[in-house]
Fold this sequence. Notes:
single chain; 369 residues; alpha/beta; TIM Barrel; Sulfite Reductase Hemoprotein, domain 1; 2 domains; eight-stranded parallel sheet; five-stranded mixed sheet; 13 helices; elongated; binds iron/sulfur cluster
Amino acid sequence: MKPRRSTRQVMVGGVPIGGDAPITIQSMTNTHTYEVDRTVAQIRALADGGCDLVRISVPTRRDTAALPEILRQASVPIVADVHFHYERALEAVEAGVHKIRLNPGNIADRKQVDRVIAACRERNVPIRVGVNEGSIVERKDKNVRAYEKALLAEGHNRLVDLMLRKLEEYLRIFDANDFHDVVLAAKSPDARLVIAAYRAIAERFDYPLHLGVTHAGPVETGRIRSVAALAALLADGIGDTLRISYAADPLEEVADAKELLCSLGLRDREEPELIACPTCGRLEIDLVKLVAGVREKLASIKAPIKVAVMGCVVNGPGEAEGADVAVCAGKGCGVIYVRGEQTRTVPEAEMLDTLYEECVKFAAEIKRH
Ligand code: SF4
């Protein structure tokens, strides 16, 4: 892991992004924003799941009209996602949102962007300025396969250059307004391009960076694609806030973003960490079922305990001794460990409940201290 890149810092409501602030997790609601109750419920669920900032789209006047009530009830800072209509940005700032996401490339007139910047300056509202591969590439070549092959041959340099040039062009507007409460993003569905683009941006600018792989797809594949790109950047010390995005329930995005940051030691765990043997022919119990059961039960525990579920004596005792609570299985039974010490042996049918009871006790103890 490389040391974190030093950047400017912006404040989004009470949450800092960049500088020495912890890396924040973002997600986005998928309700109609004008449906206030549903939107607020989702914002709260995301916040409870560990989301630090929630972005909501405001495509219509009806959506921005709902913002004052949403902001009154929201428990985390809210980012308004604006495309095409600068009026929505002005209305959102007026309503009190904490940050705006704006793509100057899809606002018709430079003067309109200037007006949004002036409104944001007045209210200390930062702006995330982003480029997406999809919005900057003119696919004159209708043969997409040939086009992509050509890009790959060039190591994506052409697209990275294009993204950088676009960002520079946008930033000139912000510089001319002497406005620097800016967060930058450059997203693509291609993990390799995301890595290359953010590395180039990190070298060129000292603004905080919002990481993400866009249009990553469903959870099963989007998860791999997102982690491939974001883990490489985070290990390089690049990235100040991130959104993992899926075509799915946004709560999944937050859970995975948290796991990514915790796995890299960039966020402290607040929930149990589950270690499990990868299974092999030495198993004498249904370990897959046991692990699924443990995972489900651990969801109710909010404490950073390390739990190991191991299948045999090859690596089992070592992992079990290093965990807070563990089970190391044998033939139809398992040895329960607490703080690395063997406490008792239970039959397979009792393993899940016994392990869970010990986890609950352990969690209560660490909360007391
Ligand atoms: S812990 Fe034992 S059962 Fe599990 S994968 Fe390792 S050797 Fe196989």
